[in-house]
TrEMBL record:
Species in which this protein is naturally found: Bacteroides mediterraneensis
Keyword annotations: Hydrolase
Protein name: Glycoside hydrolase family 127 protein
Ranges annotated as spanning the membrane: none
Residue span, DUF4986 domain: 548-634
Domain Non-reducing end beta-L-arabinofuranosidase-like GH127 catalytic: 37-412
């Protein structure tokens, strides 16, 4: 595949020494304006930025720093946060990045003060450790010594330790990149040297074994260090963190992402893009571009997010996205936007900006509560479900960390530049100070509520000057798109088609104006492989509807381990609003709607549903819908089709709703996060995939076990999901808190090619007065325990 590199993007970016200029941001990302040069004007993004800044000031910095001080053997000044214990320190790195970004974007002195305080405390940790290390990984020094000595298997005893320390690497880099802080740069490079010392003695096989454990964007970090210093040891280490299981597949254009943990992969690919950018390696660029294409264009939902229960679905199982509570994860989209920026920087393709816009407006903007500013982890795509929000100093999830950053860097991609060309990528009210060209651009728009945007050119000193202004033509615009310069239509805009940029190449005068018309229509987007499920789009904007506020359990999360999951009851699909008619008829209906009086982008729906009780629902941008159950995807079918669908699915849905209502706790077996959440331990255990479902077994006297929460309920039973036609020798015991509750032999038990649920009642004595129990599957000698596909703890 031939990719067009913007002139000077690769090679010329290399620095011959450490950059000293305070405007460090554009030294790593050559087309990016410093955040302080892009001022957000009144609109939803400015509101989000200001609200986020207020929320960030509520966090206790000493609690964020506690894990680092503890691991460095220094007295802590406050107690660490209890939530997500085992991943201690990861949010501290994000917070350092957020302080740097928000100071750069707004000039807020408190952000600078907090950033510098964090750096001083982290410097004390680095000095105390004595080897360049800074980290909050519990008992991490033992692990890093094991790895350095070749015992890479030790990494599986910890919770994603490289992922964890990647956040402090990134925080230090960002403190330098966004603010020019030289102490942060010095600490960053010392930490990079520590990372090299840990891994340089490992063989390629040992590296690959270690990289099977989530490691964030460590390849990106070392590519950045190479660009900063020009020292090839950092580039060598970046490539060693490539993880060839993924890289080789992407380079060969092979999609191997079915049922794979999504956010483990995306940061790796950011690293591929950065390696390509700093050394001109086209294989890395091609691998990154292929990954972006399959995730952004084939594996993402209408809001621009991807995954469910943190995993990419199988390509033939997109229905699961509208069945489960746990929809797209905010971290995934944070990282996809970063990858998108990097690929755009290298190629200039407008399609990247189209995706960026969709994901920014629909997912990222929606993950902040518009009043209290809490962050969202999972955005459920299930009809009539909801999402929950964090609160300061509680619920320290990964998506809290990325959420801290998201709303501080909205100005990063509105405008970019290359040589004498200025790209307008997003239609967001803002003012750019292009210091290099002595130019200001003021963008006035109410997009997406209005279908226009106007740009006013200001020239410092009033002297005219030449440059190219490239205005994006989105793929979603309908007939009537045009660009005018001082009232005259730019000829190229009449002929443009698809995602592209309209270039205005002229000598500009102070006060020149450019107007862009952005006509939009309603359209339906079908869920991948599921013809009956649609999302409603207006231009790039996902439209949704509130459908009630019942049973919003845990709407604002506490410190509970699963507080990030919207645990309230599921609504049967048969009780959600269904759009009745062919897709063409429904689209025509939607395009015939008029906004509600005195409002924009709010439309009252009536006469289109399966039940008149839904008449009066209001269709509006999804990002504006909060504190309620909502519709993102809708069933859409003819009246006859809906009758047949209801008859076909009613009994199965009734069974699933009843099972969900009984479920006290559940483990999606062999999936990374659920197993970490449930303190999985194992010996002689293997995993695999059958019919799109993950399984785990234990062999030859081995075992696997989980800790499940009882929520104080009883009586309880255990439900295990098996395959109904197992072969071989599969005799095993099921043990609860040391007591055998069942002895199983599942070979020849059902003799059918389907999954089978088996329920085991638990004696009252095993659960009475307990908040949790340990459940173990233990195989006999020369036998196999399982395969187990799902495990549930049920109440009656």
């Amino acid at each position: 595949m031939k990719l067009n590199l913007i002139a000077g993007c690769v090679g010329l970016m290399m620095l011959n020494g450490i950059v000293q200029d305070i405007q460090a941001q554009d030294r790593l990302y050559k087309n990016t304006f410093p955040l302080g040069d892009v001022e957000l004007l009144d609109g939803p993004f400015k509101h989000a930025q200001e609200l986020n800044l207020k929320v960030l000031m509520e966090y206790d910095v000493d609690r964020l720093l506690a894990p680092f001080l503890k691991e460095a053997g220094l007295p802590v000044k406050a107690e660490p946060f209890p939530n997500w214990a085992g991943l201690d320190g990861h949010v501290g790195g994000h917070y350092l990045s957020a302080m740097a970004m928000n100071y750069a974007a707004t000039g807020n002195e408190e952000c600078k003060k907090r950033m510098e305080y964090m750096l001083s405390e982290l410097k004390r940790c680095q000095d105390s450790n004595g080897d360049g290390y800074i980290g909050g990984v519990p008992n991490g020094k033992v692990l890093w010594t094991d790895i350095k000595n070749g015992k890479v298997e030790s990494i599986w005893k910890y919770w994603a330790p490289w992922y964890n320390v990647h956040k402090i690497f990134a925080g230090l880099r960002d403190a330098w990149m966004y603010t020019g802080n030289q102490e942060a740069l010095d600490m960053f490079l010392k930490l990079c040297d520590w990372g090299i010392s840990v891994t340089e003695g490992l063989s390629d096989d040992q590296m690959e074994q270690m990289l099977g454990n989530e490691f964030g964007g460590m390849d990106e970090i070392f590519a950045d260090a190479y660009q900063i210093t020009g020292n090839k040891k950092y580039l060598t280490t970046a490539k060693r963190f490539s993880h060839h299981w993924l890289f080789d597949s992407m380079a060969a254009h092979k999609d191997n992402l079915d049922n794979i943990h999504a956010n483990t992969q995306i940061p790796k690919v950011i690293g591929y893009q950065r390696i390509a950018e700093v050394c001109g390696n086209h294989q890395y660029l091609d691998a990154a571009d292929f990954f972006w294409d399959i995730v952004a264009c084939k594996r993402s939902l209408a809001l621009g997010g991807n995954s469910r229960r943190e995993y990419f679905s199988a390509m033939d199982d997109f229905r699961s996205h509208v069945e489960v509570r746990e929809g797209p994860e905010s971290c995934n989209t944070y990282n996809m936007l970063k990858l998108t920026e990097g690929l755009f920087r290298m190629t200039g393709k407008a399609a990247y900006a189209d995706f960026y816009e969709r994901a920014l407006y629909n997912h990222i903007l929606s993950t902040q509560h518009p009043e209290h500013g809490g962050y969202v982890y999972f955005t459920s795509a299930r009809p009539a479900h909801y999402r929950v929000y964090s609160k300061p100093n509680s619920a320290m999830w990964c998506c809290v960390g990325t959420g801290m950053e998201n709303h501080g860097k909205y100005g990063e991609f509105i405008y970019t530049h290359a040589s004498d060309s200025l790209f307008v990528n997003l239609f967001i009210p803002s003012r750019l100070n292009w210091e290099q060209e002595k130019v200001t651009i003021t963008q006035e728009t109410q997009f997406p509520d209005a279908e226009t945007s106007q740009f006013t050119v200001g020239l410092k000193g009033g002297k005219s000057r030449h440059f190219k202004l490239l205005v994006r033509r989105p793929a979603w615009v309908t007939e009537g798109y045009e660009v005018k310069c001082n009232g005259k239509v730019v000829e190229a805009s009449k002929k443009a088609d698809g995602s592209s940029y309209i270039c205005i190449d002229r000598k500009w005068k102070d006060g020149d104006k450019v107007e862009v018309s952005l006509p939009m229509k309603m359209r339906l987007e079908t869920l991948q492989g599921e013809n009956d499920f649609v999302a409603i789009m207006r231009g790039p904007i996902l439209m949704g509807a509130s459908v009630g506020t019942d049973n919003l359990d845990g709407l604002i999360a506490d410190d509970g381990r699963w507080g990030h999951i919207a645990s309230g009851k599921l609504v049967p699909l048969s009780e959600t609003p269904v759009l009745i008619g062919s897709k063409e008829e429904v689209t025509d209906y939607l395009n015939g709607l008029k906004p509600m009086e005195g409002q924009t982008l709010r439309y009252k729906l009536s006469g289109i549903f399966n039940d008149s009780k839904f008449d009066g629902l209001v269709l509006e941008p999804f990002s504006r819908i909060h504190d309620c159950r909502y519709m993102m995807y809708w069933l859409c079918m003819t009246a006859d089709g809906y009758a047949a669908y209801t008859k076909r699915t009613q009994e199965e849905e009734k069974r699933l709703m009843a099972l969900d209502a009984r479920t006290v706790d559940a483990v999606s077996v062999a999936e990374q996060q659920p197993e970490v959440d449930h303190k999985m331990a194992k010996e002689n255990s293997e995993t695999g995939l059958l019919k799109g479902k993950k399984w785990r077994d234990a062999r030859d006297g081995g075992y696997f076990k989980y800790t499940l929460s009882t929520n104080g309920k009883q009586p309880l039973s255990l439900m295990a999901t098996y395959w109904g036609n197992e072969q071989g020798n599969r005799k095993f015991e099921i043990v609860v808190d040391g007591t055998v509750i069942a002895t199983e032999n599942i070979v020849g038990k059902w003799n059918k090619e389907e999954f089978v649920d088996v329920e085991y009642k638990l004696p009252e004595s095993l659960v009475k007065g307990k908040s949790q129990i340990e459940v173990m599957f233990k195989s006999e000698k020369n036998s196999v325990a399982g395969r187990i596909f799902m495990l549930r703890l049920l109440t009656e």
